[in-house]
Amino acid sequence: xxAETASVLTARALLLDMDGTLVNSDAVVERxxxxxxxxxxxxxxxxxxxxxGRQGYASMAVLLPERAMEENYAENREMLxxxxxxxxxxxxxxxxxxxxxxxxxxxxxxxTSADVPLSTGRMxxxxxxxxxxxxxxxxxxxxxxxxxxxxxxxxELGFDPADCVVFEDSGAGIAAGLAAxxxxxxxxxxxxxxxxTVHVDDLTQVRVEAxxxxxxxxxxx
Length: 221
Fold this sequence. Notes:
Blueprint: E1 8-11, E2 13-16, E3 23-24, H1 26-40, H2 44-51, H3 56-63, H4 69-84, E4 91-92, H5 96-102, E5 108-111, H6 116-125, E6 133-135, H7 148-157, E7 164-168, H8 171-179, E8 183-187, E9 198-200, E10 206-210, E11 216-220
Parallel strand pairs: 2-5, 2-7, 5-6, 7-8, 8-9
Antiparallel strand pairs: 1-11, 3-4, 10-11
Helix pairs in contact: 1-2, 3-4, 4-6
């Protein structure tokens, strides 16, 4: 955790990204997008900077700005199928299992750019339980960094955005959470440069407890 960040936050609900936050799927993401980069003659090192946190079609729109969106949507369906078929190397982020166990009975939701098959598969591959409330790619009309997903998650849980804390690893996801008017806990090595409210290495550095009045106290470090 960086020295300038707060060590305690109080919230009423938590909104959790999946890839890079609860599940480390980098191996699969890199394999699939490396193939895509080669097919389109793009520099993989530049491509991978764009794709984390976004839905595939949105990444493609950034990387191939002259291409018709219909082609992006079609190729995104192929990308999702390839990622869903490949679970090799999918593991939990350190501390994820204990973190999710500590949220049992507390207001929280999964807000992911993955669709239902991919999110279900990756959480199962990592041995993690799926939160009861889930906002997936099918649930939104706009990808992160648009705040729609987090705003929907807050609404489904019945809380104001200001009462929610987002957990995210990517620039697109952190931007989405902040745009939704929420505080953001940045998880892992990618998160620190994107201005989260708090930054930690992984979920072993986060503790959640219910306190009086239905509030949640988040302690970091």
